[in-house]
Amino acid sequence: MSVDTESLQLLEEGLRKTMAAASGAELDAALSELGWLEMLDEMPDAAIPLVFRLLGETGAHAPVLNDVVLRAAGHDEGATVPLPYAGGAWVVWERTGPPGSALGDDLPIQRVTDGTPVPLAEGRRALGWWLVGAGRAMLALARQHALDRVQFGRPVASFQAIRHRLAETLVAIEGAEATLVAASDELGCLLAKAAAGQAALTAARHCQQVLGGIGFTAEHELHRHVKRALVLEGLLGSARELTKEAGAIVRAQGSVPRLVQL
User: Fold this and answer.
1) 120-253 architecture in CATH?
2) Which of 22, 48, 73, 87 has the most crowded Cβ, counting Cβ within 10 A?
3) Which residues form the Acyl-CoA dehydrogenase/oxidase C-terminal domain (predicted)?
4) CB-count burial class (<10 Å; 0-12, 13-18, 19+) for 145
5) Would the pTM count as exceeding 0.90?
């Protein structure tokens, strides 16, 4: 099912407003009312990038990764499924209930002893879009601070070191987004998630430096995006683990497959 540009823009506006007003189980219910599961079935190539990117940009959260993984496994959406985490751990992203203490204290994620392997390609692509959105949110905060903050009589955005950090962050994010757009198979989604995870870590590091001391305070929004990026980066495999996995796949195949038709 194709979606025209105008309809997609209207959908994005509605989703952004919804995510600005709700999070967690409340947002999960709101997305269901907006037809998230129907969108996932009828237009996943548009719905997944849009919803997960906006989750990253707004800082909201909802357990909709479960739906993507369950759909790819051929199961009914709306439930939960154990998900692999970095270091060989397994977690469950609960649909209701209080935040768990396993991975911070703001997401209802609980550790479990083990899980049944399920297809992860679409889930990794979805998480990649979430990480890209979080990276863009951090970059926007750092950019605005650089424009507003004045030192030695001029905005710090005019300093070369600041520009370099912001530019490197933007290049990492744009590169990750390009890999997500091109991802069409298991290896492509694996590499895209690794690139998005690395881009989010780059954004966290550089944007923290640009913001300086204020970026460490609880009053500023940056720390929430940094914390979220660190949690998501390890879900379904960290960038380091996925890179090693991709290398093992290439060695086993004896050749590097063409991932993008140029």
Assistant:
1) Up-down Bundle (1.20)
2) 48
3) 120-238
4) buried
5) yes
